[in-house]
């Protein structure tokens, strides 16, 4: 594979990350440095850098001299990730409300929702789902919270993508869209308690998905 001779490690990182997200690289798979060097036609340095970034994301569970191992998921682990992410978003909501950022949030969320609805059934749907939830954290203005959100959302997205059945995937996405709209309405009404409750219900859908498949 030919890569642009700029930021090789960034390109390799994004490609491998996408392969994991899309299930082309499975949970528990071993990534062999030699194979990656041959695949991307690069030296060991950009491969090593990309692997370490994936490790920082939580997608790699161990690194050895010859390569690395993709994380293996268990039900307790998946439920922990789901719960932590739910509380991160909850904290973002509460902080944003305290700072009086509801109007800006609503405007941004509505714009994101327009695009997400257009992307139902496609890969881009997940990108807008990520942006929807990240909005609450971004409006909190807490850089540490944003970093945590990004870390756990990657793991969460891998799980959700892996276990959604194409036969009822669109149905699940429509349920998620409905919950998103309800959250926006609660924020417009400046009802923080309702928004938090709806956020918990939203992540409950993912919890059910994980319990059905792990």
Describe this structure in words.
With 214 residues, the protein is mainly α. It is built from 9 helices and 3 strands; from the N terminus they run αβααββαααααα. It has a 3-stranded antiparallel beta sheet. α4 packs across α6 (124-140) and α8 (169-188) packs antiparallel against α9. The longest helix is centred in the middle third of the chain and has 24 residues, at 75-98. It is globular.
Structural class: mainly alpha
Mean pLDDT: 91
Count of distinct strands? 3
Q: What gyration radius follows from the Cα positions, in whole Å?
A: 19 Å
Low-confidence stretches: none
Spatial strand arrangement across the major sheet: 1-3-2
Strand content: 5-15%
Q: Please provide the ordered H/E string of secondary-structure elements.
A: HEHHEEHHHHHH
- Amino- and carboxy-terminal Cα gap: 35 Å
Shape: globular
Biggest β-sheet, characterized? 3 strands, antiparallel
Instruction: Give the quaternary arrangement of the chains.
Output: single chain
């Amino acid at each position: 594979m030919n890569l642009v001779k700029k930021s090789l490690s960034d390109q390799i990182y994004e490609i491998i990350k996408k392969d994991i997200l899309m299930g082309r690289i499975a949970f528990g798979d071993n990534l062999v440095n030699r194979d990656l060097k041959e695949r991307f036609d690069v030296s060991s340095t950009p491969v090593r850098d990309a692997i370490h970034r994936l490790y920082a994301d939580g997608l790699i569970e161990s690194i050895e001299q010859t390569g690395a191992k993709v994380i293996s998921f268990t039900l307790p682990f998946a439920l922990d990730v789901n719960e932590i992410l739910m509380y991160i978003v909850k904290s973002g909501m509460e902080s944003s409300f305290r700072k009086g950022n509801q109007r800006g949030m609503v405007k941004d969320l509505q714009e994101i929702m327009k695009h997400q609805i257009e992307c139902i059934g496609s890969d881009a749907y997940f990108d807008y789902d990520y942006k929807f939830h990240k909005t609450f954290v971004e409006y909190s203005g807490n850089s540490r919270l944003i970093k945590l959100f990004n870390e756990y959302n990657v793991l969460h997205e891998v799980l959700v993508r892996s276990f959604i059945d194409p036969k009822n995937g669109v149905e699940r996405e429509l349920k998620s869209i409905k919950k998103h709209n309800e959250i926006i309405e609660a924020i417009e009404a400046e009802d923080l308690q309702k928004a938090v409750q709806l956020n918990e219900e939203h992540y409950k859908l993912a919890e059910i998905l994980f319990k059905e498949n792990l």
